[in-house]
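Appendix C reproduces, verbatim, an entry submitted by the partner laboratory led by Prof. M.T., so that reviewers can inspect both the input and the predicted structure.
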Amino acid sequence: MRKFNVLNESTLETLKSLQFDELKKSCDVPATIISILGQLQADCISGRSKNVKEGLFYSQLVIDRSWEYLNIGNWKDVPDPWRFVYAYGCFFKIVYLNLSSDTFEELVATADRGLLMGLPIMGNVLARIACQCCRYLSQQSKSKEDLQVEKIPTLSNSNGDNSKTTLKLTELKVGISPGSTEVMQVQKPTIQWFLETVFGKQIPFIFQDCLNSWPALNEKHWTLSYLCDIAGHRTVPVEVGSKYTDESWSQQLVRFSDFVTMYIEKENPSTGYLAQHRLFDQVPELKNDIRIPEYCLFGDVEPEDIQINAWIGPKGTVSPLHFDPEHNFLCQVIGKKYIRLYSVNYTGLLYPHEGMLSNTSQVDILDPDESQFPLFSSAPYWECILSEGEMLYIPPKMWHYVKSLSTSVSVSFWWH
């Protein structure tokens, strides 16, 4: 395997400045783990990182020990020091993998695990390593033996309606009631108009022609093949199941190209959905293809305050009726989605779950059980079909249900 210099001059200088004892200040990271990290650090700095077998053993020991703490209780309650420990374990493992005969795929997978489960370290060194490895892999993978992107379907084949024909809401058979209202549309309004007419009144609105400057919709023209070229080797979290409220729902970590093959290219009895994932932090090359909507950036809101998520999946993926605490611009890059929205004022008619899923309704809105949820049908709602190039504003705490009508790629921007 072709090697590259993980421990370049800049990385070594950063490594020399690390003080692992800092990890003990806010949670009980055992002294043995701190000692192992310190020894791995010293070996890398001194050039003694040639004992690959021993280095892999101790770096994996750090990963395994921190993994135990990452999987205790709620994810939001995991202490940051343990996430840093996990990321450092992945970094040191990469140093030794690079000295062994392992493939670039293993280096990328290890870096991605550190990015997904850990926290950014050393100037986001894991992201840089993953990107560098992927560049090498791209040079090697133009043949059919790698991603086989030639076999990945374009979005004009039979996986859903991807034509430019406008779908009518009445054709969807989604149980339109007299109380429903179609979401209004506006063509690229001024920020002042948005603040006064939409933001101030907290109503949903579709914005036209606001994504015209996105390379993803122009010169880069996103397709599944393009996304696999850029991110095919990256490990991503995939939700498996019809919706996250089902008992059978689970999550898997898989390569992006495998996700496309298993759940979009091929027929699969299970639905796979790359949902609410910070793909653009993980793969900065893709972030260059999108733009933060200017309507997010007013007052004291800064670009770093905005959480950008990717939503990628086949026809039929569902986000059950729920609400989020943030303002949201949902931008449709590929395909179409049906969306239904309810005002927070009607929460009492929507039968939220109790406990951790209190932001999610118990009702299957397309097939409601009227005997169990008798008041649900009396709640008025907005609805729309969001098509390529369109952007939907969803106010904070507004209930919304989303269903993909075709293979779909969406980008959401959340901000407070």
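The longest strand covers residues 327-334. Additional entries are available on request from the coordinating office.
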